[in-house]
Design goal:
This protein is an alpha+beta fold. It has one domain. It has helices at about 1-15, 20, 85-100, 105-110, 115-120, 125-135; strands at about 25-30, 35-40, 45-50, 60-65, 70.
Length: about 140
């Protein structure tokens, strides 16, 4: 299933090349299981996307670090399970958008519109702000 993971990584990297998304993220590095992105402007933070060795039979893992605050897929307060690397990327983009109090780029929403709607329902903007201030 490395083909699926690589195809998803490629789609994310292609999205990162779009002008609107380049204002948010910069590609940092990638290996077989990880994709690292910088949140702009530097040094605002970073995003980590991880495809476990059993992926896609297990969910993708994601984490957003802004300053010294971190929101990730497994936090009790954060009920979002990304089934794919694409959904993990959308989750991270959503967290950053709520932190910056701006709308998520439509090019990212188009990757999986139903999942993006689910994020709006599960993680309202003030919820993301609370997570970042409580930690």
């Amino acid at each position: 299933m490395a083909e699926r993971r690589n195809a998803e990584y490629d789609l994310i990297v292609n999205c990162l090349n779009l002008p609107i998304v380049q204002m948010w993220f910069r590609f940092h590095s990638r290996n077989e299981n990880y994709l690292y992105l910088d949140i702009l402007p530097i040094p605002r933070g970073h995003v980590t996307l991880f495809a476990p060795p059993a992926y896609p039979d297990t969910n993708a893992i994601w984490s957003v670090m802004i300053g010294d605050k971190r929101i990730c897929h497994r936090q009790f307060q954060c009920p979002v399970q990304a089934k794919s690397m694409l959904q993990a990327f959308i989750s991270c983009t959503y967290v950053v958008s709520r932190h910056l109090n701006i709308e998520m780029p439509q090019d990212v929403v188009k990757i999986d519109p139903l999942f993006a709607q689910k994020l709006h329902a599960l993680l309202p903007g003030d919820y993301v702000h609370r997570l970042l201030t409580v930690m």
